[in-house]
Specification:
disordered N terminus; alpha+beta; eight-stranded mixed sheet; 8 strands; globular; single chain; Aminopeptidase; binds coenzyme A
């Protein structure tokens, strides 16, 4: 999931290009205890204004996080890239720090999608936010006529692997020593949309 390959021909945001995507009530919100109420999750496009919040999540989520510059490249220069954010609406307890709860970056390359990055704020994990982001990615992929979605994930990342398996992704290959910090194999997972 952390690979960087930018040599793709040009395309646009295309289908599903509206500013906001479907709002959704978080599946397990009522069971959350000891914190502000999680009412709704609103999925929309990431903009540069979101990057402070995105970077806070990125830096605590990965041992080799993307830099701000990498996100800026995706936002400004990569015509294949789509970046979604999940916001709590209204903000949790009025705290802007936790208002942006997660994000996803994926590339639409003709009839294939590659999920490049996905993370949820540590305080807001296991409440359906990652699932909402994957659902929206699949929905936008279908709108684009995509046939297959790919991603790489660390072999040991059981949380993410279970999330993807829940949506029908299957392991199709291994990529030995794909990751650094620490060095680890990747598993390549794919979801067939046909
Ligand atoms: C992976 C990640 C995005 C999941 O986000 P999330 O919002 O917690 O996921 P959800 O609440 O939608 O959970 C969806 C499913 O994932 C699986 N899952 C998520 N967290 C899990 C955990 N701690 N233990 C076991 N399964 C887990 C479950 O199957 C869950 O479905 P269920 O609750 O119905 O059993 C989040 O844990 C994260 O940001 N991890 C760090 C960054 C990362 O690894 N990104 C993925 C890189 S490939």
């Amino acid at each position: 999931m952390k690979a960087r390959h930018l040599a793709w021909p040009v395309t646009g945001w295309g289908v599903g290009a509206s500013e906001d995507f479907s709002p959704c009530v978080a599946a397990r919100a009522p069971t959350y205890e000891g914190g502000p109420a999680l009412n709704k999750i609103k999925i929309s496009r990431m903009t540069e204004k979101d990057l402070d919040e995105v970077m806070r999540i990125e830096e605590v989520s990965f041992s080799a996080p993307w830099s701000r510059g990498m996100f800026l490249t995706e936002l400004r220069d990569n015509p294949f890239s789509k970046l979604l954010i999940a916001r709590l609406d209204p903000p949790a307890g009025g705290d802007e720090q936790v208002r942006l709860a997660g994000y996803c970056c994926f590339w639409v390359i003709f009839n294939e999608v590659h999920i490049m990055n996905l993370a949820v704020h540590p305080d807001w994990k296991r409440k359906g936010i990652g699932s909402r982001l994957v659902e929206e990615t699949i929905s936008i992929s279908r709108e684009h006529g995509v046939k297959k979605i790919h991603l790489e994930v660390r072999q040991s990342n059981d949380q993410a692997r279970r999330l993807y398996e829940k949506f029908g992704f299957q392991v199709i290959a291994a990529r030995p020593n794909y990751y650094t910090h620490p060095r680890e194999d990747a598993v390549l997972m794919a979801l067939d949309l046909e």
